[in-house]
Amino acid sequence: MTFLSISNAVKTFGSNTVVKGFDLAVDKGEFVSFLGPSGCGKTTVLRMIAGFERPTSGRIMIDGRDVTDIAPNKRRIGMVFQAYALFPNMNVAGNIGFGLKIAGMGRAEIDARVQEMLDLIGLSHLAERFPYEMSGGQQQRVALARALAPKPQVLLLDEPLSALDAKIRVSLRSEIREIQRRLGITTVFVTHDQEEAMSISDRIVVMNGGRADQIGTPSEIYNRPTTRFVANFVGTLNTFDVTVVDPGRGHVSLEDQALMLHASPLSAKAGETLSIALRPEALRLGRCDTHEATLPARIEDVHFMGSIIRLRVMMAGVSVSLDTFNRPDMPTPLPGSMIEVSLSGKQAIVLRG
Amino acid sequence: MKKRFPLVAILTALFAASFFIVPLIATFYFSLKMVRGELGFAAYASVFGSAAFLQTISYSTVASLIAIVIGAVIIVPTAYWVRLKVPHLRPVVEFISLLPLIVPPVVLVFGYIRLFGSSSWLPLTTTATGTDILLVIGYVVLSMPYMFRAVDNGMAAIDIATLTEAAESLGASRLRTIALVIFPNVRAAIISGAFLTFSISLGEFVLASLLNRPAFGPYLVQLGQDRAYEPAALAIMAFGFTWACMALMQLFATRKPGQRWLPRLTKPAAQRTTP
Ligand SMILES: Nc1ncnc2c1ncn2[C@@H]1O[C@H](COP(=O)(O)OP(=O)(O)OP(=O)(O)O)[C@@H](O)[C@H]1O
Ligand SMILES: [Mg+2]
Question: Residue A325 needs a FRET pair 20 to 30 A away by CA distance; which of A219, B53, B60, B255 works?
Answer without folding.
Answer: A219
